[in-house]
Structure of Truncated gag-pro-pol polyprotein:
Amino acid sequence: MGQTVTTPLSLTLEHWGDVQRIASNQSVDVKKRRWVTFCSAEWPTFDVGWPQDGTFNLDIILQVKSKVFSPGPHGHPDQVPYIVTWEAIAYEPPPWVKPFVSPKLPLSPTAPILPSGPLTQPPPRSALYPALTPSMKPRPSKPQVLSDNDGPLIDLLTEDPPPYGEQGPSSSDGDGDREEATSTSEIPAPSPMVSRLRGKRDPPAADSTTSRALPLRLGGNDQWQYWPFSSSDLYNWKNNNPSFSEDPGKLTALIESVLTTHQPTWDDCQQLLGTLLTGEEKQRVLLEARKAVQGDDGRPTQLPNEVNSAFPLERPLLKVGTT
């Protein structure tokens, strides 16, 4: 009786449901047939040490990823979802993968040798904490945003809509203190993509007389209030503009305008792209956007930390009042 040999490729096929779930967490979709083709036929030809049976070695995976993300005709956009999923499996291996990556775990204990030097730096860390308090002091200046007396938004603000997150109505001073504390809980950060567009398109604001319907803003009683896109806005944007396949330039201009004027959160961006684009179009747009991320030198970068910082695949979190 022959004994079958388990390989990384065969292991992923045996747990294909988990592989698809991990791919979904990366906002991509993978097919089993192409998964096998890329692993056994395409990636071994990249000459980076990728075996036909697959591997969970992060060094090799990242080398394949750099080939896949290569700009111009040398790139392989159709392989992006698959190598990204391989990378996610290797970074956070599920239980059925851990036996295959355990030989590499001894390499990680060597890393604490590097932090052994910085262990002498807790005093500077403690010195940083007082530096955070000045960043909290400018908070009283934020009510100036509500000083705009021109525009219809004043009527909306006076109605005190429910604050962002779950908070029950308070009738006592003690409850008010609790609301103020809970109002600074973790909330979706504005999309880094919005910050980059805003930095390129908007000059430094000299006055604050223009009122805009921002998804997240400071309302009455210094409570952060969240205003998501309304269904009517999404409906009008989708039905009054051509599809991306018909006129990509016009729809791109619409999306850039919405990102610049509304300053949406990461969740809002996902909802906007999911409404205006098909699943395949959204994947293409995100891929091209990640390939166009510029580094500190102003050139397109392939460094994963810079790309993920500009276009994160997972929802970033931000504590209100800390930035």
